[in-house]
TrEMBL record:
Keywords: Cell membrane, Membrane, Transmembrane, Transmembrane helix, Transport. This is Iron ABC transporter permease. The chain crosses the membrane at residues 74-92, 104-125, 131-150, 162-182, 207-225, 246-271, 291-310, 322-339. Its main location: membrane. Belongs to the binding-protein-dependent transport system permease family. FecCD subfamily.
Length: 346
């Protein structure tokens, strides 16, 4: 009797927990739907609902409809990029067991940026596919480099050592980007604008080549949820459960690298989103990656859409790129985590 009562308690607790998570998920999806509508309707030009409806059905007969037609691919790109960066941040924090892990802080985004800049300046790459492949390669090399540097010395790859290695690598790669661009006045303006990070000027022709990379990255990342739960128990415990630790970590990292590289290629480096989103989602759903990863993807899309809308409203009639808005949000959050959290491991 006692054993059956004990077994029933965890089951009921799990049911209540999953019910609460489902409610949070429904609320987050509702927020996402609202932000999608705001992103299409809000901008530097006021448009009527009739123009919005007409533009969504493909009409561009006047300026209002043309404005909405431009916002639609921008909204789609913000949705995809935000989901990719939010999910990549959760994956990186799970793989490294580092609460400070983020595609920007660990130097992954800047590695992708440096690779793209070198490709443009030295090899004259121009196609969207070339941009994406080069960015993914740069992101992967940067991730391996930072992890190797952070693993040196006593204690292996501790969260603090990884954060310091990533920060130093980001600064070094940023300086190298400037060194590569300075002699090339013909590409300097475009590179500087791209480096800020933004979704302005998006078109479906630019988005289509990146979709296969994002699809593979999303699939690999979401399928890694159970393995990340095992890794969270520690390498020895995960190995005792039959998990191949190195393979699990490498596969999950590959998903994050694909997401970061593809997003950076089309949007430029957007920082701090991958840091903020997973922490907020853990407050809602806990540390179970089966819930945390999809929540991080949806919340990342919400945050980037909101940042894009805020950037349009604050700087009217001009715009603030989302990279600036996310930095304004993320930098204080990063300082708070460093000061208030135990940054040893997750």
């Amino acid at each position: 009797m006692r054993s059956s009562r004990r077994s029933a308690v965890p089951a009921s607790t799990t049911a209540r927990s999953n019910g609460a998570r489902s409610l949070w998920l429904a609320g987050l999806v509702a927020v996402l739907a609202s932000l999608l509508m705001l992103s299409v309707t809000v901008g530097t030009r006021e448009v009527a609902w009739a123009d919005i409806t007409a533009a969504l059905f493909g009409k561009v007969d006047d300026i209002g409809q043309a404005a909405v037609a431009v916002r639609v691919p921008r909204t789609v790109l913000a949705l995809l990029a935000g989901a990719a960066l939010g999910l990549a941040g959760a994956i990186m924090q799970g793989v490294t067991r580092n609460p400070l892990a983020d595609p920007g802080i660990l130097g992954v985004n800047m590695g992708a940026s440096l690779a793209v800049v070198i490709g443009v300046a030295w090899f004259d790459i121009a196609s969207a596919e070339a941009y994406i492949w080069v960015a993914v390669l740069g992101a992967g090399c940067s991730a391996v480099f930072v992890y190797t540097i952070g693993s040196l010395g006593r204690g292996g790859a501790t969260p603090l050592k990884l954060a310091l290695a990533g920060a130093a690598t980001s600064v070094a790669f940023s300086s190298m980007v400037i060194a590569v661009v300075l002699p090339r006045a013909d590409i300097a303006g475009g590179i500087r604008s791209w480096q800020i990070g933004g979704v302005g000027g998006a078109t479906f022709e630019r988005i289509l080549p990146v979709l296969p990379f994002l699809a593979v990255g999303f699939a690999i990342s979401l399928l890694s949820a159970r393995k990340l739960n095992s890794l969270a128990l520690g390498d020895e415990m995960a190995a005792g459960l039959g998990e191949r630790v190195a393979v699990a970590r490498a596969v999950a990292a590959l998903g994050a690298i694909l997401l970061c590289g593809a997003t950076t290629a089309i949007c430029g480096p957007i920082g701090f989103l991958g840091l903020v989103v997973p922490h907020l989602c853990r407050l809602l759903v806990g540390v179970d990656h089966r819930w945390l990863l999809p929540f991080s993807a949806i919340a990342g899309a919400c945050l980037l859409l909101a940042a894009d809308v805020v950037g349009r409203v604050l700087a009217r009639p001009a715009e603030l790129d989302v990279g600036i808005v996310t930095a304004l949000i993320g930098a204080p959050f990063f300082i708070w985590i460093v000061r208030r959290q135990r940054v040893r491991e997750l």
